[in-house]
Amino acid sequence: MNAVVALLAEWSAERGLVAGFEEEGVPLSCEPALGSAEELAREAASRSALGLGIGGDGERLVLGIAASPRRPYLVSSLDRSREFGRAAARVAAHRPLPTPDW
Amino acid sequence: VLVAGVDVGNSTTEIAVARVEPGREPEWLLVLRRATTGSKGSAECADGVAELLGRAERRLGQRADLLLLAELHPVETALLELGRIEELDLARTAIARPASATPSGSGVAVGRLRALAELAGEPEGSPVVAVVEEDFEVAARALREARTRGWTIAAAIVRGDDAVLIGNRFDGAVPIVDEVEDVARLPLGALAAVEVAEPGGDVEHVSDPLRLAVLLGLGPDEARAARHAARAVSGHRAAIVVRGASAGAPPRPAPSAPVTLVGRDGGEIPLDDRSVAPAPGEIVAMRGAAGDRDGLIDLFYRALPAPPDDPGFARRLARRRAVAIAVLARGSSGGLLESLAELAPAGARIVARESEAAVLGTSTTPGAGRTPFVLDLGGGTVDLHRAGDDGEQAVSTAGAGELVTRICAALLGCDAAVAERAKRCRSALVETPFVLHHEDGSRSFLGEPASARALARLCLLDRGELRPLEAVLAPEVWRGLRRAAKRDVIGRNVRRAIDAIGGVPSGELVTLVGGSACDAEVVDTVAAELGDLDVAVARGDVLGRHGPRAAVAVGLVLAGGSR
Lengths: 102, 563
Prior knowledge:
The complex is a heterodimer. By secondary structure, chain A is an alpha/beta fold. Helix content of chain A is 34%, strand content 30%. Chain A is built from 3 helices and 5 strands; from the N terminus they run βαβαβββα. In chain A, α1 runs parallel beside α3 (81-93). Chain A is globular, with a radius of gyration of 12 Å. Chain A starts with a strand and ends in a 9-residue tail after the last helix. Chain B contains 14 helices and 28 strands. A 7-stranded mixed β-sheet of chain B has the order 6-12-11-7-8-9-10. The longest helix of chain B is centred in the C-terminal third of the chain and has 26 residues, at 475-500. The radius of gyration of chain B is 30 Å and the shape is elongated. Residues 83-89 and 250-255 of chain B have low confidence and may be disordered. Classes of the chains: A alpha/beta, B alpha+beta. Chains A and B meet through α1 and α3 of A and α4 of B.
């Protein structure tokens, strides 16, 4: 099991996500996949040791919580992958999100 | 006839409407309240009263015939805060900045500030602190190359949130602080000290003035001035201090006390915020940084509370030197009675002194019998009313609920509206999306996950909602500070008022009314403050249904009925 899993239909977000997680010191594993951001986030959360999964498609990045699969926990546009990665890593590390971005 | 008892307080105006017939008990119809318009006793107060009477008329379908008032003693209350004197002084010798939630490396390092681009040139013999605005990959490559060519990179200061990324690609041991927004304004060429402590720790070199002076090459005179910079960064995990342009210039003489108090005897004393505020009536005027004021009835001041076991927090607050000052001064009534008389067909009549009314109204509390000592804990003042067979006595002390709100705002770094809620609500830390950590250390589980905004933050539990605060405080610590603010202001002013009337006899009943008495924590605070007096401290419940509210307004109706 990986700490946090990202399933990405659009690979361009990977660099930003990885950098955001690295800065916060939280391990992330990214895999290519097919589907909508929300579906992928649900799938990724079910595979994560922390119950936190990221899904990405051509438009959006979504953070899902396995314990609350109905609603995305964080959502961002694809072009803010670095900020989104940092915020998602902070959720995993139980650190407050930077305001006022979120 | 329909009468309305009207009580205009410093922050709240209340009316009690009742039908009164000779020889009968009043039939209580309605109690309404709103924020006071204008300062207490001034003509502007009539606007607020008119609005309340209009509301009562719509609810009852009938207009109040007669307004019953207490004797008017117009007063002004104000809250003042001293400026951040030390920060001005600090700018002269140094730029000191706590920085970074996620720094890289550890330890302290000193060097001259150099922009990353400058490191492409010939290496300097002495260590440098790189100032980085570039993206992490570019920055890490430039730092690696510069080191290979002979530069000594002692530390780095980064604008973005990139410290760990740069450290991982350059050198994980070198202290790197990030999230320094205004790196472009740092004086290149100046000497800078950068310190990063281990996770969970605080800086220990740059927060020591003497060590800081050695690091930055300041002389013995300036080491004393360096205390401001040291204080500004103490209690943080990462910090930078840059030697200012005017360091080395002779130090200015220490500024004299910013506020001077004038005593009843005309003597002037400098305000020392660590001292105990003098008794009501001792100070008649103030001069200086917080404005000049005459005709003071009371003046009260208080430095911000700090958690006893967190010296870093205490030093951070001390830097702000925030002092809250409340003043109570005589005002002018400017035709309030005349304005109010126009609002009712039978006009307005003064029927009692405020103390008399407060005691009459509070005495309607079930089980109280007569309540000879009434403490009115309001927004602007704590008023003590005593009504005995030998007449009435009243003391007003400056500083009550609003001063507590100001102190909460300063501690939390929030605005007054948030502080007003923070003063009254319990808080909890959202530990995970599903777990709340409460003020008493207990945990509870949430059915729905807390919002991402609330995560890992101290939140107010406000009417079933979680309202995140900016301040980084444990719930237990915040509870301690909030209670200390109430004790320091309301508890202290209760004591000053009781001392001023010569004490309360053992075994006597002291009844609390007013808006601040709605807060159970305030009631506890006052009971604890009066613990040594062996008196019964109880909360009023006016007419058995209004809680500690509307005591004076109800008392005025009772006083009017007996005349």
